[in-house]
Amino acid sequence: MSQEQPRRPSGQPQQQAAGGEQGAVRYGDVFPKVSGGLAEKPVAPQDAATMQSAESLVLGQTLRGGPGAAMQSAATANERMGVVGHDQATDATAVQGVTVSETRVPGGRLVTEFVAGQAVGQYLARDDDATTGGRGAGSGGAARGGGGAAGMMVDNTKVTIGEALEATALAAGDEPVERSDAAAIQAAEARATGLDANVPGGLAAQAQSAAAANAWAARDQDKTTLGDVLADATAKLVGDKPVESADALRVAGAENRNKGDGTARPGGVAASLAAAARLNRDEAVWDQ
């Protein structure tokens, strides 16, 4: 799955304690949204340990598929290559640290993980989640790197926005992401999470990057597809909810406004949410 393509610094790699080999897995490879000097630094084992410790302190567990797990995988690869030592930490965590920011949202809190002041993941926690709160001294807290499994509770009898987006990946997964698709995905993510701003590294951010890159791609085979972005959408959303008619209308409006001919893509995001809204409405009538 391509999503945003990992990037490596174009110049000479910074020299690390174990040689700074060209093949090192850097922060920019793991978290494509980070920039500056942090993007060029190889992920070190103690960086990952700090992040996982912070996740455990704040959320009561290390998040499966979260930033800490991603950093651990990268650090393990770097240690095997001899790029970093087992007890090594980069100055990104040793000096600037891993911190946490919590923002109150309706029904819960949005927790954001930072490395050296740059966001690397978010997690939407309900008020009644059985997790521990607080910040670790010096290391801060933790976040969710793109999943809603421990976040909002949803009605399992109805089709959710995340499931409708996954249906788009099946119905139109081979289609390159266009600006209209990105607008529809942004609207869908906002309706699912209740957040006005894009989630860093979330579906909308990935779709917008893909649409911009696709506009410059010379060959179709080089373009990022809807399937690349929307596969496992439910796991990537920081919150989810059953699709309602208002959600489908908002998404359809966003897609149509950004498409040249003003029509929705067959099997696309708007079409999938419209179908889901109808299913959910019909099921409610049937249950009565």
Question: What do these coordinates show?
Answer:
This protein is mainly alpha-helical. Helices cover about 45% and strands about 10% of the residues. It is built from twelve helices and three strands, in the order H-H-H-H-H-E-E-E-H-H-H-H-H-H-H. The protein has helices at about 25-30, 35-40, 45-60, 65-80, 90-95, 160-170, 180-195, 205-215, 225-230, 235, 245-255, 270-285, and strands at about 100-105, 110-115, 120-125. The protein has a three-stranded antiparallel sheet, with helices on one face. A hairpin with a 2-residue loop joins strand 1 and strand 2 (about 110-115). Helix 7 packs antiparallel against helix 11 (about 245-255). The chain starts with about 25 loop residues before the first helix and ends with a helix. The relative contact order is 0.13. The model is unreliable at about 1-20, about 130-155 and about 285-288 (pLDDT under 50). It holds the Pfam family SMP. Belongs to the LEA type SMP family. InterPro entries: LEA_SMP, LEA_SMP_dom.
Describe the secondary-structure layout.
Blueprint: H1 27-30, H2 36-40, H3 45-59, H4 67-81, H5 91-94, E1 98-105, E2 108-115, E3 118-126, H6 161-171, H7 179-193, H8 203-216, H9 226-230, H10 233-236, H11 245-257, H12 269-287
Antiparallel strand pairs: 1-2, 2-3
